[in-house]
Design goal:
five-stranded antiparallel beta sheet, 2 helices, disordered N terminus, mainly beta, Immunoglobulin-like
Length: 379
């Protein structure tokens, strides 16, 4: 028979044992649920065998978006208007959004389905099928209900965990920073503990890129510690009683006494490791205990001694190769082991040994004049 029918239905999620075979754990629960309804033939309860078709939509209004189905449950027995059907639309259907069930009916064995109206809302009860997996949890779970250890891999990439590396934090840090290490002082905000100019910080190593980039410079250790050996075998011969001077970004070693007598070679280096011989023999001859001073981009060699003589000549050079004699006999007389310094445009000579130990002090008023002559350099 082909009739129009009226249907009033409701959804009920029954116990699992009523839907599936009994099991020893609730994790065996699937996505099927039982639907019970009432079918009337006109105004009287229907009796007989019917085919039922079920379809899930996201709206009570026609047409809406199809979510699942249609699913036909054939040869469904209806007794006194009541029927029951087991439905299984698979996973991913009941996600928490509104769902409506459209029911269509026909007499068993053929004919056209008659769609019953209105669509029936699927109320929250059947959503218990989502409990088959913790990944389907909706809403807020109180922290007190969490037990065990949550693996780091289960956390989102934006979560900050202990021992995380390579993490960039934005915004302001508030709180006790006593446990923070390896901070870049240049990244600290003004007024938040930035060390003022002239301030001093301690570092465990002499090479500290963070401090250097923040404008700090390594100071000489006031306790004399922290020495590093640049080399234990410089290419110039072992010697003593020689001065060292720094000119034009280089330190210069020259002359001095050796096991074979005074020498007059000249060496330079910018790092104490790599040395270059500027001259094997310079015109002022082998000597030791002479004075050297840097002045106006030149190094000035003066005085000194050999085993037989004391000198009071004065020589200058900017490269250690070419030397110019300013005077062969300065008025302060031959001497060695004396002090020499450039100060306020003046050259000073004092003390030393010559004719006995000396404590006299001499200065050149105009350092551009030596030996009674003014020095001119072509530019």
């Amino acid at each position: 028979m082909n009739k129009n029918h009226a249907m009033a239905g409701w959804l009920v999620l029954l116990a699992l044992s009523a839907l599936n075979a009994p099991s020893t754990t609730v994790f065996a629960q699937g996505s099927a649920f039982s639907y019970q309804g009432r079918l009337n033939d006109h105004t009287n309860p229907a009796n007989g065998i019917y085919d039922l078709r079920f379809t899930v939509y996201d709206s009570a209004n026609t047409p809406g978006n199809l979510i699942a189905g249609p699913m036909t449950v054939a040869a469904t027995r209806v007794a006194n208007g009541l029927f029951s059907a087991t439905l299984d639309f698979g996973t991913g259907v009941f996600t928490g959004r509104g769902r409506w069930l459209e029911v269509a009916v026909r007499t068993n064995g053929g004919g056209v389905f008659t769609v019953l109206a209105p669509r029936q809302p699927l109320l929250p009860s059947p959503y218990a099928v989502m409990a088959n997996s913790a990944s389907n949890l909706l809403g807020t779970l109180p922290a007190v209900q969490l037990t065990g250890t949550l693996p780091v891999t289960a956390l989102p990439s934006s979560a900050l965990t202990n021992n995380a590396r390579g993490v960039t934090l934005n915004g302001s840090f508030v709180g006790n920073g006593a446990g923070l290490t390896n901070l870049n002082a240049g990244s600290l905000a003004p007024g938040s503990g930035v060390i003022p100019s002239g301030g001093i910080v301690l570092s465990a190593t002499a090479s500290n890129a963070a401090l250097t980039s923040a404008g700090f410079a390594l100071m000489v250790n006031p306790l004399g510690g922290g020495w590093t050996q640049a080399t234990n075998t410089a290419p110039w011969s072992a010697r003593s009683l020689y001065p060292v001077v720094a000119v034009n970004g280089q330190m210069w070693v020259m002359g001095g006494g050796t096991d074979y007598g005074p020498t007059n070679d000249v060496w330079s280096s910018s790092n104490g490791v790599t040395w270059t011989q500027a001259s094997r023999t310079v015109p002022w001859g082998g000597r030791d205990s002479f004075g050297v001073v840097a002045f106006n981009g030149q190094m000035w060699v003066m005085g000194g001694r050999t085993s037989h003589n004391y000198y009071n000549d004065v020589w200058s050079s900017s490269n250690g190769v070419t030397w110019t004699r300013a005077t062969s006999a300065a008025p302060w007389g031959g001497r060695g082991g004396f002090g020499v310094v450039a100060l306020n445009g003046q050259l000073w000579v004092m003390g030393g040994t010559g004719n006995g130990y000396l404590n006299d002090v001499w200065f050149l008023e105009n350092a551009s004049m030596l030996g009674g002559f003014f020095l001119f350099q072509k530019q």
